[in-house]
Amino acid sequence: MLPLSFKRSFDIEFLQSLYDHLQGHDESLKLVLRTKSGRKTDVPSKAGIGEIRNSSNKPLFGMGPKEGIVHMKHAGELRAPLLAFLKEQGVARQEVSFDTGIICILAYAVLVAGGGLVYTVNNYVEFLYPYILSCLAFVLSGLALMAYSYKPDQEKWVVPSVILLAIGALPTSPASLLTLPMIKSLGRAKLKRLLNQDGEGAKPSHT
Q: What is the pLDDT of residues 132-157, one digit of tens each?
């Protein structure tokens, strides 16, 4: 599963509380703090970025200037207490909007299809236009498959969706960066569904 995210400005108290809560279940966890420039720091007041890492030094949770990032793939037995804490903090009540993502995808399609047509015609390489359209199709198919893979019990489709995206996105870069808002929205919707599912560790953390 790809990392999931939610909107929240960097909050050292939130991060420290989550770390303390999860340490009650696994004392091997590490809290890594960095300044906004990326330098490690042990002073919480100077931190602008933070990560909670597991015993294998893989990120479990991260928090940047504008969002929190949840690595469910590395959660293991901490999945339930992690989701419980996030739900208690109101993450499940956040609204997820796809408006920006849809607008960006439409802009991407217009740029690739329209810009590709102009480029191939002006440079007398019209035979490349079908290839450009196929890249667009790969990206749109990858996004559709990613949305499907985020449904319950469909995680096996995450890797194929990423492969499709990569095949189409790399040749159409940097325009393909316009797909990022939709990818983020899909991740936020997935996290919200996880938090609202019955039996997914929704009990209060009592911390």
A: 999 999 999 999 999 999 888 888 99
Question: Among 95, 73, 70, which Cα is nearest to 84's?
Answer: 70
Enter the pTM of the model.
0.83
Q: CB count, 10 Å around CB of 100?
A: 12
| CA 48, 49, 51, 57 torsion-angle sign | negative
Q: How far is CA 13 from CA 48, 56, 57, 61, 100, in A?
A: 12, 25, 22, 14, 30
Both tokens assigned to 25: 């279940």
Q: Which amino acid is at 180?
A: L
In which residue are the tokens 């790809």 written?
2
60-89: per-residue pLDDT in tens? 999 999 999 999 988 889 999 999 999 999
CA separation for the pair 144, 130 (Å, rounded): 21
